[in-house]
Amino acid sequence: MKSSGRSNNRLLEGPILGSLLKLSVPIVLANVLQSAYQLIDAFWVGRLGGHAVAAVSVSFPITFLLVALGSGFGVAGSTLVAQYMGAGNTAMVNRVAAQTLLMVAAVSLLLSAIGFALAPSILNLLGVAPEVFRGALTFLRFSLAAMLFTFGFAMFQSLMRGVGEVKVPLYIVAGTVLLNLVLDPLLIFGLELGVGGAALATLITQALALIIGLSLLLNGRWKIKLSVSAFKPDLAFIRRAFTLGFPASIEMSARALGMNVMIFLVTSFGTVTTAAYGVGINVLSFIVIPALGLSMATAALVGQNIGAGQMARAARIARLAAAIAFVSLSLVGALVFTFASELVAFFVPTDDAVIATGARFLRTVSLTFGFMGLQMALTGVFRASGNTLVAMVLTLVSQWVLQFPLAFVLSRDSVLGLNGLWWAFPVTNVLIAVVTVLWFMKGDWMKRHLANESDPLTEQVTDEMLIEERTAR
Length: 473
Known about the structure:
Blueprint: H1 16-46, H2 50-69, H3 72-87, H4 90-125, H5 130-145, H6 147-162, H7 167-190, H8 195-219, H9 235-267, H10 271-287, H11 289-307, H12 311-338, H13 340-347, H14 352-366, H15 369-384, H16 388-412, H17 419-442, H18 456-472
């Protein structure tokens, strides 16, 4: 049974560019503000010196790996929410949202506990320098304690994107970032917690963000209405979410594991290279925000149109988004190439060696930003259509067939030396973008329509709605 929500959904009609902008601009702004957590942390931690920056640089990929392992359910949930919203099935939207949040909470708690216990062993395995180890362990453990809140709020944002509501998460993020701006110097320097203070500030603000988000979902004002009964574990949904989410977990885990493996190579070149790599990754994370926001908006818009059966419109959305991402990120790359030294100096103003090495990294990779944006936009299309296996394969090829082998060979077995690490990034960006475009052009992603597939969960919810209607009569 479906509601009448589909007929009132403005994302299914009208100019495509207008719909993309309506979704992507608030998402980009929210992502910019969300990244401000890392930027604010990096700014204040940078005042502690290169060792502190290296501690954060080593810790981030580990946390990202653990989050990625549990992220598959979130991808499955947001994909299903978007398609059921497009099909007008609000009952399924509500059920999927509740089940997704439940599984995310369970998985994040489990992974946090495992990571907290294994943190010292992981850092030793990575070969972290003695002068960096203590700060890295403190930052990592605080970050792991915050995982439930960070990941939970990310899923709240993802679910809201699925139903086309993107302004509310923006307002929440804006408020918590302002709070983080105040807490960082207070905890890092005022209470003398060092790098741990930056992670603790994020824990506090993300916990507040999640509490606000959950209260809104329980209130039901924003297209999703959660009820206590909807949180009862549902095996039918778990099976379906696993089918969709397992490839997504492998994809994101492979990407995160690739970052950790790169750390093995980077740390072998010393603390300066490790710090430069960390600063460069911070800059890259901020630079790709527009493409990431456009990819998220594309996924939500394509997902809803697939759910509504409007495949031709979904294809037009995908092509336009890919073109916009390529052009905009190419322009941003040109700016980064020009001001690379200034960008690195913003984070580590007093360390000339880190500035020089970090600037060389940014100049090497920046002119291929457009290819990154193109690949991200089209990967969002694959996820929106439920083709998470495609996204997984692309990531495996990118990280394990291209980037890491190239980085190893070019830095160890060529005259490039350290610069070989950096050259692995642009070569990978171009090659994987070409592969992604060719896969997209095959058109297989247009053949799947999750909202129309028969499954026990949909039948169960429909039966419950019929029972409620008969009771009301």
